Amino acid sequence: MSALLTVNDLKVSFNTDDGVVRAVDGISYSVEPGATLGIVGESGSGKTVGTMTIMGLTRAANTEISGQAIFDGEDLLRASEQQMRAIRGDEIAMIFQDPLASLHPFFTIGAQLVEAIRVHNDVSKAAARTRSAELLTMVGLSDPKQRLSSYPHQFSGGMRQRVMIAMALANEPRLLIADEPTTALDVTVQAQILELIAELQAQSGTAMIIITHDLGVVAEVADEIAVMYAGRIVEQGSATELFSSPQHPYTRALLDSIPRLDRDRSRALEPIAGRPPSLISPPSGCAFHPRCPLAFGRCPDELPALEPTAPGSQHLVACLLSSESRSAER
Amino acid sequence: MIRYILRRLLWVVFLLFAVSLITFVIFYLLPSADPAALRAGRQPNPALVESIRHQLGLDQPWYVQYGRYMKNLVFHFDFGFSYQNGVPVRQLIFSRLPASISLAAGAAVLWLVVGIGVGVIAAVRPRTKLDRASMGLALVGISAPVYWLGLVALYLFSADIGLIPILPGANSYVPLSEDPAAWFTSLIMPWCVLAVSFAAFYSRLLRGNLTEVLSEDYIRTARAKGLSERRVVFRHGLRSAITPIVTIFGLDLGILLGGAILTETVFNIPGIGRLSYASIVRSDLPVIQGTVLLGAFFIVFANLLVDIFYAFLDPRVRYQ
Amino acid sequence: MSAADPLVEVRDLEMHFPLSRGVILQRQYGAVRAVDGVSFSVGRGETFGLVGESGCGKSTTGRLIMRLLEPTAGQVLFDGEEITHFGRRQLAPLRRDAQMVFQDPYSSLNPRKTVGSIIAEPFIIHREAREAGERRREVRELMDRVGLNPEHYNRYPHQFSGGQRQRIGVARAIALRPKLLVADEPVSALDVSIQAQIINLLQDLQGELGLTLIFIAHDLSVVRHMCDRIAVMYLGKIVELAETERCFSQPRHPYTGALLASVPVPEPSVAASGRRPVLKGDVPSPSAPPSGCRFHTRCPKAQSLCAQQEPALSEQPGGSLAACHFPLEGYSSSS
User: Fold this and answer.
1) Residues 6+ apart with CB under 8 A from C82
2) CATH number, span C6-234
3) Strand pairing partners for C184?
4) Per-residue pLDDT reduced to its tens digit, A67-90
5) Window 160-189 of C, Cβ < 8 Å to A
6) Which of B43, B76, B109 is the last residue before a domain boundary?
7) How is residue B232 annotated by DSSP?
8) CATH 3.40.50.300 fits A5-91+173-329, yes or no
9) What pLDDT digit, counting tens, does each position of C145-200 carry?
10) Inter-chain Cβ pairs, chain A and chain C, closer than 8 A
11) Radius of gyration of chain C (CA)
């Protein structure tokens, strides 16, 4: 099966008054049809900028973009604005973190759904409205007819996110980009939304990129996971492999620094020293080296490439240490 | 909603009552020229002044005068007579009102179109030369005093003294009912002059609002839907950015309907503004009272309309 | 289940925020029952957790204990003294002995003041360490103690990262060696890699200074890691109050059970081992809470009794307190 989306050496930098921000510094990944890729990282890791760029939403005079993002045989980074508009919301749809802020406060839910349908389909308002009501039923909202005339502020957080999902799936996209879809929600509602997304994805066969800082969330939904740090992917692999044998010191440190319900309570947390790097003047060599407990002589000088952990393995890591010495230190 | 409007209307009545009382009290507390003496003309004899005073009711205590004034106003919609020339104030006001409305309404259309247009253009091209130039110019527009602008305009364009005499100058106002074409040309210059600072202010305000709105998450959602940039800006962006403008517009228009004193004076337009200015100079209480009440009515009523309109614009207010 | 030597005790605490209409003639047409009859006590040196989802009243409870709000009913006792209706002047000692750390390290520090003067503020307000040199020395010691470089004394908050700003907030809070620290979501605005730093800092300080800590959070994993005992809140009420270990291994209230099951675990094998029980719907509005047991509208075990009669917080086998007519039995979470 050929990939639905293949990203090659994507780089995004912004010229700001303070200097050039290298938000994304050469990332490559691919998403198979129907599969789910999880991109994990902290704020400033470039996880959001990368997908926004693929959607053509970061184009501006002060932005420099290079690389490729091949979707369906076409390079999205070189597509015209008009071509991108036809793809956005139709072939590729997005849902965002804060469902209240992401819905227009002055328009009814119905108007916003109808608009999303009619941008890409030549259908009457009435037909689009009927379809909108179906979509609301699909995402588990009762009284869809009545809900269509409601405004976002009349809904609860979970309901709003359901509306966002309905809007994203309105045109049966082949790829769904979910950027922190449950971060603003309560934990019991988060569970509902994750289950809903998984269910709908299974029904429709939509591929998904889920972006989050929450390792628990990706573990739950993603098949493949990429861990980002300072604009680069530092580790990538199947969810099972990545969590059972994390290879990059950053991935390990992340897993060791969070309290977990499935671990002994008295286990001391191992914080990651220091703070996330500046993207204007990132550390030389491996950007993680100033915070890395295993850093050695070469780390400040050499940029590690993302390579298989073992010959032929799909599990990739960008670290100068050999896998033996990484394991030995563990 | 209806109950809300009724309550607000009661407020309007109460406020107007308070305004009239305060105007009356101020007039009596502050030293001013004796209206009777002014009316009596040059070198009046004391007996004549006394008889005029009696005739105008000025020899009675102020609260009696106020009571009589309010009684006539409430029951007969009678604003009394000018001390100056005995003309009914109601008639004075209604004869002057069309000029003020003409001036304010025309200028309002002009400043809305220009202000919103420039604001949108600057906001969608932030930090470009066009943006900086228009916002810089707007700052000049806000700072320029309207009477100075008026004189400069007359000096440049008026038919009598202008360097490029293409427009009728001061004192050329013709009522709409007499000659629409002349009405229009006579008001072009006053409209432009009056609209400059408003247009400048509105464009800066709108640019600020719209720039902020365009960075909102729901604008990102609109773009992610695949909408055209035009639709994103005009339907989704402007819809939110314009709401604060509506509030200010209502108030500005309300104030101007009560008379644009400076513009009316520079261009010699017989409107409410000049009437109120003249009445203050002549201590003509009934006329002062009438113009103040009219101005207050426009402001308070505009406020009410703005609030009602706002509820239609912003559903979050509506459903509270 | 009350602490032996309580520093803080609240009894039947209630905070109803009135909802009113009108400008001049205000009429109250309802109330947000943010906290609605909450009782517990916190022992000296204990870490007590308040957990729940948005709208459960955990933050309001914290503010009531700090007496930043005056309760509409019930009592607050601090160090054996009732402070429920103390006025401004009477509260002065409490303002020294009880301190708070807030969620957002960005907005809770004055951007125009240097870090040194922010941390020195408590000394000035409470007229301690009057001499400037002494004050500066104290502040430098505090900065060192919370892991900030004392040389950064003259920097402004914006020159620090989120984690460092939270350290500044902590330094300010412990400056006067308070007896009680109320931490309201102290790590939820921070990056994952930074959270552990602050959690460890709070734990270390608690040990060193013998602090009593009330830890308010929505993140169950963090609460489990930090706290000795926890109270789970739902719509203004405590539904379960238990020792942390017991609460997580044997939740008695179905809401606690559902909360625990909802937390995603970074372990794909656990996630793959079948779907977890998921609660239906959202939390109802605290201005119109459901009748009877407030959880009955979402409870998988609800029966008709639950809609009619409100269950009291009562002792369950094993020593936990739970407010449920049909508590869970022998359930064990993922651990």
Assistant:
1) C75, C76
2) 3.40.50.300
3) C216
4) 999 998 999 999 999 999 999 999
5) 161, 163-164
6) B76
7) I
8) yes
9) 999 999 899 999 988 888 899 999 999 999 999 999 999 999 988 888 889 999 99
10) 145
11) 21
